[in-house]
Amino acid sequence: MYRLAIPHVKTRSLEFFSDGSHLVSIGGRGLSVYVWNLQEKKLVQKIPLNDWAVLFDLNYYLENIAIIGKRIVIQGGKQQLFVCSWPEVKDIQIIQFDDQFPLWIRSLKNHQGVLCHFSGSRLFQILDYDEENVERFESIKSPLLSPSMFLADVSADRQWIVTSILSRIQVTHCESENECVAEKYIDYYLKSAEFSPDGQRFVVVYSRFVRVFESIGANACCLPIRHHRKVQHAKFTPDGRLLTATVDGQVHVWDRHDYHHLTTYDFQLKHLRAFCISDDGLTVAIGGDTPEIIVFDLDE
Length: 300
Fold this sequence. Notes:
The chain is mostly beta strands. Helices cover 2% and strands 51% of the residues. A 4-stranded antiparallel β-sheet has the order 1-28-27-26, with no helix packed on it. It has a 4-stranded antiparallel β-sheet with strand order 2-3-4-5. A 4-stranded antiparallel β-sheet has the order 6-7-8-9, with no helix packed on it. A hairpin with a 5-residue loop joins strand 18 and strand 19.
């Protein structure tokens, strides 16, 4: 475990490069992107977006990061994606979405080189991403989505979609002619939803609880997993274990089969906000309202 001293207080978002060599973070006032060399444990690049933000009337924080190849993609504002190459940041491309009314980009995730984002009631994916063209979009079959939808995820094989409106979960198969195949209600408003790497299960976060469901039928795989503090994130590792991160800086590891508790990492981080797992599932990074990013290996 080691700590990266950061030149700002809040860390809003974190993402590993696919080879695990570098880590990208959004921090400060949310208008700068930082790239860290994890072998040398130091900051190697700061990408300021302040000038671009003024040019494109960005009045909101940058929120999410996705890494595709050697490109860094950042969600910003109501309708913008910022795209820049790395390590040579020659230019920053802005993808602007023009809709009849303002829509929030709900989330930004990278699945096997395909960047999916969710904007209001519409669900898109960027196809055939390469150095020449980042604006090829195709609408995914997106059943029963509404402007009040506030979270969603697409399985890595792009066969399943999970969406939520307030406390209602809807699961859809992409080849089911836009029909919802399962629906569940939770007693709380949901914070996030995340598929397992194989797409067979998904986990939802609400208040101090997380719960795992099967994609087919949305049957519960376990009872609600209760935490002592509010849960900020829940993600699966490639081998199927479940990791949950609570607001007080604790990271909990749960068994891949029956989700009994295995271990807890307690870093006493003030107000955990950002949490990510490397593609190989061996390394975790967390950040919050303290001037440091904590990077550690699972099972260390």
